[in-house]
Design brief:
The protein is an alpha/beta fold. The strands form 4 sheets. Strands 8-3-4-5-9 form a 5-stranded antiparallel β-sheet. Helix 8 links the parallel strand 13 and strand 14.
């Protein structure tokens, strides 16, 4: 099959396009013909090299994909050839206590497609059948391929961790990013008042189009004061993936008993 891959870490110049063996599905697995694959920032970090990440080269990046089932392995009954699917990139054992309780990301064997094992920047990708979901008819393959990793992360933060409730004021940092734009949409779905932050007016305008109620430039030194003007008692939830430079401001913007979630 044709694939994009690299044999050593580095900049974009290490990427190659060439032929690699087409995978075959084993028990419980499905072979998907990739119709669309999106670029996640994790793909860039993996290509550059991450501390402690040991890869088997050549490595195919690509966390997110949507496509059509080509072949099902033994034991697979939920999908058949021709089904349009979205690939969930988080792989776990499916049988440990964490998996049984619905916290697959805490599985000792948890891996991410394209990071710990070769991913979707290829004509074909092989994944467990439990990692496939039917592609919604309303989404194109391009749109569906942009959903999985960022929305999984944002959902985990806002729904499972922060337990956002309707009417709460939620700050979504870096709303122009992948996980930030997912966070805006999920928070609005939950009925929250969304205060989006970003580094440019253009990104803030896009956040408003996605549903943000208010917008604040985090390049302003007093960004947290701007938030307190919108929420005088402080916000119930802050969705943060910017890091330590924003922690002090987060503490000033959160209300007593509020929740700050990180990724």
């Amino acid at each position: 099959m044709k694939a994009a891959f690299f044999k050593a870490h580095g900049g974009p110049e290490v990427l190659q396009i060439g032929e690699l063996p087409t995978p075959s599905p084993d028990w419980g697995e499905v072979l998907v013909r990739v119709r669309s694959a999106s670029l996640n920032h994790l793909d860039l970090w993996v290509r550059q090299g991450l501390p402690g990440l040991k890869l088997a080269f050549p490595h195919i990046p690509g966390c997110d994909a949507a496509g059509v089932v080509e072949e099902v392995g033994p034991g697979v009954t939920a999908f058949k050839k021709g089904d349009a699917v979205v690939v969930h990139p988080g792989l776990s054992c499916g049988s440990c206590e964490a998996c049984g309780s619905g916290w697959e990301s805490l599985c000792p064997e948890y891996r991410i497609l394209g990071e710990h094992l070769s991913g979707a920047f290829a004509e074909w990708v092989k994944v467990p059948a439990r990692n496939l979901f039917a592609k919604p008819d309303a989404l194109s393959f391009d749109q569906a391929a942009a959903v999985p990793l960022v929305f999984t992360t944002a959902w985990q933060m806002l729904v499972r961790r922060a337990k956002v409730q309707a009417g709460e004021k939620v700050v979504i940092h870096a709303a122009g990013s992948g996980v930030g734009s997912a966070g805006v949409q999920i928070a609005k779905l939950l009925g929250a008042t969304v205060i989006a932050t970003a580094g440019s007016e253009e990104k803030l305008e896009q956040a408003k189009k996605l549903g943000a109620d208010h917008a604040v430039l985090y390049t302003q030194e007093d960004w947290f004061r701007q938030i307190r003007k919108l929420a005088p008692e402080g916000c119930e939830v802050i969705f943060d993936h910017l890091g330590k430079d924003f922690w002090a401001g987060n503490i000033r913007a959160i209300r007593n008993g509020g929740r700050i979630v990180l990724c």
